[in-house]
Design goal:
Structural class: mainly beta
CATH superfamily of the largest domain: Nucleic acid-binding proteins
CATH class of the largest domain: Mainly Beta
Distance between the termini: 35 Å
Radius of gyration: 19 Å
Strand content: over 45%
Number of strands: 11
Number of helices: 4
Oligomer: single chain
CATH architecture of the largest domain: Beta Barrel
Shape: elongated
Strand order of the largest sheet: 1-2-3-5-4
Number of domains: 2
Amino acid sequence: MATTTKIIKSFDLIQKLGYGFDNGKPTLELIVADEMGNKIVINIRNSLKPKFDKLIKEWGHFCILYAAVIDSPVQYRTKHLQHEYKLMFIKKTIVVAFPAIEWTGTNGFTFTPFDVLINRELVVGVTADVIGRLSDFSPVFGVSGELKSKYINLQLTDLDGLQVDATLWSKFCMDFDNHIKLVADDASVILLIQFGVTKMHNSKLAVSSDWTYTNV
């Protein structure tokens, strides 16, 4: 159910997810964060995309006036953000873009503490941001010449010495492999995964890159 609301709210665009569907109609999906770092998904129907596309740049700051507030289905919340609602731009929506500014938020990151993963306080298939020091990694697995089959398993350590596993797939796997070859053996590598997805790995809750919206 959609409710048109007079909203005056500023956001930073964190990521363009690409195209999804709302009631069978293609929509451009964005993840945005407010000044406190709270994130929500915005949908822009294909017919309205030309109106807003030039105004909204990735990592840009903008203010919106008027939007539709719609329910975020449970299945959708599991895939993207655990938020009860989404916003949808309508013909009445006004967007005003601003230069990047200093703010008190977390620049779109909501880091999951390692003990939350270790204690399985999240379910499988929800988004998670993690940051840690690279403490171990496997060889690259997969079929030669098939990028989508490539993956690498990593182990990350936080400041308290807690460790979690992570898996990078496809392009992220190869980018990591190319980068790590250039790093000195005694160097410390800090890895940040934004919009990773929780999964079970070796009977433990781990984080994996997703095919569409993960940043590494």
